[in-house]
Amino acid sequence: MKLETQHLRREAFTLIELLVVIAVIGILAAILFPVFAQARERARRTACLSNMKQIGLAVHMYMQDHDGRVPICNDNTTPTTADDNGYWWITLFKYTRDDGVFVCPSWQQTEAPTGLIAWETPPNPAQPFEHAGIVGTYVWNETMDGAPESKLAGRSADGVEYGPAQVVAVAEGFNGSHIWKPEHVTPLNGNTERRLREFHQEGMNVAYADGHAKWIKNTQMKRRLWAPYEPGWLD
Predict the structure, then answer these.
(1) Is residue 20 within a helix (H) or strand (E), and if so which, with residue range?
(2) pLDDT digits over 92-142, tens only?
(3) CA distance to 11, 72, 79, 146, 173, per residue, from 76 (Å)
(4) How many degrees, rounded to 5, is the angle at CA 89 between CA 64 and CA 170?
(5) What one-character DSSP code corresponds to residue 194?
(6) Backbone angles phi, psi at 178, to 5 degrees
(7) Which residues are CB-contacts of 107 (< 8 A; sequence separation ≥ 6)?
(8) What is d(CA 155, CA 145) in angstroms, rounded to the nearest whole number?
(9) Helix 15-65 and helix 88-96: axis angle, to 10°?
(10) Contact indicator for 214, 203 with CB cutoff of 8 Å
(11) Domain of 73?
(12) Could you read off the pLDDT of 147-185 as tens digits, one per residue?
């Protein structure tokens, strides 16, 4: 009987052993949880980049169908997805046929920049902006609205050659707004007009006018990527 009691005691965990196990689990959780979070974010970044590739292809297809002209995507007058000159993702929807591509998987509510025009101000900043039943969170390069393709290639005022592959068409930003002045990219004197947002590991996905897309670090984002044909955008 005494031997059986001793055997049972040996099978039970002591308080110290339990505390050691709990501590080890805590350490493993502290190590693994950030790894899992980073893996999830990488997956969202990849999904966002896929969105950008589809948007970039849609821009390129539109230009092919319209003699090289860039879409006009700058107002809130379009009542249906069949029209050509309304909010930018409405115009491009006929090429993507998927309204999900206009929303970043990592999008979250951020503070609204100053200077938003009424028709690009979301009624509910906590939700992706909706137009004609289509929601979107990316920002559109309004400096190239309706321009011929020839505008997207040339030599800037400081002598640097550029083409559609160097002009950003769409990027991650504040809830479906537009980029139409340099301060929307990199503000001066601490103003709060900046409309770009970095939702992916200190960087963002962008789609270019030639149809390709890629992730760039926030320090690589320059004004000239949006309008190298405008002297005031060169940095």
Answers:
(1) helix 15-65
(2) 998 998 889 999 999 999 999 999 988 888 889 899 998 888 899 999 999
(3) 73, 11, 8, 16, 18
(4) 75
(5) -
(6) -135, 155
(7) 128, 137, 172, 175, 199
(8) 19
(9) 90
(10) no
(11) 2-233
(12) 888 899 999 999 999 999 999 999 999 988 899 999 999
Q: How far is CA 215 from CA 49, 118, 177, 183, 198, in A?
A: 7, 30, 20, 21, 10
Contacts of 94 (CB under 8 A, 6+ apart): 81, 82
Q: Amino acid letter at 81?
A: T
Residue 62: both structure tokens together: 């539109």
Q: The whole model's pTM is what?
A: 0.80
Q: How far apart, in whole angstroms, are the C-alpha atoms of residue 30 and residue 196?
A: 32
Query: 3-class DSSP state for residue 228?
Result: coil
> 179 phi and psi, to 5 degrees?
-105, 110
Number of domains making up the chain: 1
DSSP string covering 28-95 = HHHHHHHHHHHHHHHHHHHHHHHHHHHHHHHHHHHHHHTTTBPP----S---STT-SSSSHHHHHHHH
Q: How many other CB atoms are there within 10 angstroms of residue 190's CB atom?
A: 5
- Confirm if 41 and 33 have CB atoms less than 8 A apart: no
**Nearest to residue 138, comparing CAs of 102, 114, 181?**
102
210 is written with which tokens? Answer: 């030639």
The single residue listed with the structure tokens 């896929």 is: 50
Structure tokens at 44: 């969202």
